[in-house]
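re: ur question from yesterday

yeah so i grabbed the chain u mentioned. its 536 aa long if i counted rite. heres the sequnce exactly as i have it in my notes:
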Amino acid sequence: MHFTLRLKLLLTHLAVIVLAMGLSGILLTSFLERYFLQATEESLIAQAQIIVQTLIPGAVAIGPQGEVDEQQLQTVQSRAPSANLLNQRQFSNIAVQTDLEQLPAELPLGELDLSYLTYSSVQLGTQLETHIRLLNTQGEVLVDSADADLTDTGSTDVNIRTDEELDLSTIPGVAEALQGQYACHTTSEARKSSLIVALPVLLTGQRVGVIVLSQPLRDVTAVLRDLRLRLLLSTAIALVFSTGVGLWLSSVITRPLKRLTAAADQIAAGTTAGSPFDVQVPVRSQDELGYLSRAFNDMTARLRAARQMQTDFVANVSHELRTPLTSIKGMVETLRDGAVDDLEVRDRFLETAETETDRLIRLVNDLLVLSRADSDALNLRRKPVDVGQLARTVAGRFLPQADTCKLTLRVDSAPDTPLAWADADRVSQVLVNLLDNALKYSRAGGTVLVRVEAGADKDIQVTVRDEGIGIPAADLSRIGQRFYRPDKSRARERGRGGTGLGLAIARALVEGHGGILWIESKEGVGTTVGFTLLAA
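ran it thru and got these structure tokens back, copy pasting raw so excuse formatting
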């Protein structure tokens, strides 16, 4: 099944909403359920304590972890039982009242004699439906609220049951309480849940029985069920609104992507008017999508510039090839028409043809170097090179030209200059191009200085400085572009015109060595061209 990006975003958005709502609901209901069960347990423990204290003066029920409220124990033990005592106690919403008409003078520590309870009545006033059982140490039920009669006031009269064995397996926790341990269990029978607590009963440190209380959890279950229904309803409503928000959000995200896709298709198909790289997409945001749109526009602008550069390159190559070829063709036709018989004319034409042929060879070689540089196929043969000595050797080849132009050519090499890790032939080619340009555009009587020294980053820095005509500021940024010559007319007039590939080749060779090439110039003052090489 094919899922669009918009559908994926929408489904992801809805999945996050459902997951968040579901986890929140589970955590909330779990917390409330634990809170309600804990509150119910504490209420049953409080009921057990007050019932035990009311029915058996001086006795206490052992709560969780075997802890006994010392202050409560002292209060209970400070009340000595007496005859004809009306005892009434209240804790929160629990009220217990006993009318003890006759109490024994002493309560034995062995088997508890509860015969005095036959002369008493106990009333429980509570809003909770608590089932109370009081057992002796043999598990016999002494008191069971299930046999009580309900009065009109909502109170419960708890009667006495004796000589009846309780099936301990039917009530969880009783066996544990008979062993002196507090127990709390939740039971579920016929879709009815109840919470049961069983507490050992101590009298002056001796275990004399067990009190068991159970309470239905209908209210807790109802509250939790209602809460779950509300959470489901809230989730459904949230999904409805989230679907609308997700559709809008996914549309906002995918609309710019669709525009980019359409623009890319137009470029690939070339269906736009004019150049296929004239396609631009609107930038309507400052986020990542806006950045992507700007990057696309920049890419098309660079592609347009690259295509224009390619077109200019082909045009320039064609022009540079056509000029010498036209010249050679004209001279050949002239010689064929009879000029070959004139030895002076023939020799001059052959010399010119040879010069133009050499020019074509240099142009082809330069183009081959640029092509290899563009494809990272220069195949540099690197080894440690003394760049200072190499510069002196190359400069020596230009001394006759410097003397002809009445220029001073000097090479300065710092003694602490390290060896370079470079291809000596390619570095010589760079120096030849730079020196050739420096001599071409220098004024008579000037100086051309080649300086080799250690750079700031432990590399080798080479600079070629002349005192020539300089480069206009408007042309400085374009120096190094292929076939670009800032002063074509004057150079042609002085016989110093070139193809405009020298600096482009020098830059390509230097960058192939991992270095950089830069140009500084001021019109009428001179030009400095420098480059760096990695140390060996």
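noticed a couple things. The chain has three domains: 5-224, 288-373, 380-533. also The first helix runs from residue 5 to 55.
anyway ttyl
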